[in-house]
Every structure is written in C-alpha cells, then in structure tokens.
Amino acid sequence: MRIICVDNYDQMSKKAANIVASQLILKPDSVLGLATGATPLGMYKQLIKTYEEGHIDFEEVTTFNLDEYCDLNKEDEQSYYYYMYENFFKHININIKNLNIPNGRAMDIHKESLEYERKIRKSGGIDLQVLGIGRNGHIGFNEPDIKFEALTHMVKLDEQTIEDNSRFFDSIKDVPTKAISMGIKTIMHAKKIILLASGKEKAEVIYGAIYGKITPELPASVLQLHPDVVFVMDKEAASKLDLEKLKEEYL
Ligand code: F6R
Fewer CB within 10 Å, N or C, the chain? Predict the structure, then answer.
C-alpha cells in the first residue's frame, strides 16, 4: 500500500488525474474502473484539461463504472450514467461503445450482473480502478458486512449511505434504496487501485481502512491485501494517521 497525502482537495485531484494520465500514456488501450460521488469530480475536471492540452487520448480506452442506482432512468439527473456523461464522457474522445455502466433498470439484475462480470473479463480485466470511500467504509456500494467474495450484484443501501447521498437529491425520500455494484472481489481483481479521500469526515474511516483489522464490517479494509493500491488523500482525510510512521512503513 502506498499513501500520498497532499494539502487540499485540488492537489488530491491533480495527483489522482496524473496517476490516471500516466496509466493511459503507458497503455493507451487501458481498461479503467471509474467511481462517481463528490470526491472524483476534481479529478475528472483535471483529466479533461489534460486531454484538451493534448497530453492524453481516450480513443482506445474502455471504462467500467463501479455502480448504478436501481430504478433510475439513464436520463435522470441523479443517475450515475448522467453524472458520468455530464462530468466526464461528453468532454473527451471516448468511444461510446467502450463505456460500461451497470444497468440499474435491468429486469433481471442477476443476469445483468453476470453479464457485467463477463464483459470485464472479456476486456482483459481492469488495469486501474478509481475508488472513493463512504463514511461507513463502503467501496463501490459494498456496504458493511458484504462478503469479500462478492462479484457484481444488487445491494441494499445502508441508512448512512442514503443519508449521505441525500445531499444530491431534493429529499431523502427520493434516494433509491437499492443499487447494482461491482463486488469486493471484482474490485480486488483490478491490477492497480487508487482510492481518493478528502475532508475530515473521512478521517476516521481512512484510519480504520489502513490500520484497522481486515473485516467486512469496514469493506475498504480489504484493500490492505491488494498488491498495488495507492491512497491519495488531503490532509484532513489523513488527519488521524501518523504520517511520520507511515513514511517508514509504506513509502
Ligand atoms: C460511487 C461509489 C461510492 C462513493 C462513496 C463516496 O461510485 O462507488 O463508493 O465513492 O460513497 O462518495 P463521495 O465521494 O460523494 O463522498
């Protein structure tokens, strides 16, 4: 595990974008795993800028998003499809055929999940997976107590997640209670992972994910077992870590 701690959100976003950009420079036909939420927005902005400046190209890139709410249409402003299109895809030269977001409206979510896994395998597997982290330690929508061996599946969202995500909706009642998400096993199969975290409300869970015991009660703790994972954080998210000690242990 590597830890990169920077001063603020802006620097975290630039660092993360640079890691993604390096991946694309080294392997232009990379398969990226992508996240939504507030945290990666700055990274997407920075990647768009790097693309506009001509340093990176998305023509051969394939993407797989972590998750999607059930029961929202793609056109719904709260859907992750809409988020990805508005905040990233419409600004870059990615081939629409290469974008993959689980279909939360599928009639048969189990079949959709198997098909998503099949597509990931067929693409050669995820080269670089971008993650955020929920205050309860979820990655993707793998809520506490999820089985580590889970592949893509339907999840019931935790009360805390529904409350946290209600900031994006008019009312908490509008937040979907179910989603389709890559499982922990899907995430752990990615060749490289970067987890982004910003703000003091993530400090406690970051401490647990890095120092705590590896347990499904804190899903992100499983990342301690991944051979190539980088946590990119701002000072606030890292505020409960002993950075001097970490320098010796991880860097
Ligand atoms: C989003 C996702 C979630 C978020 C997490 C943090 O695709 O899978 O795990 O990364 O809920 O969300 P923010 O960044 O809004 O704090």
Answer: C
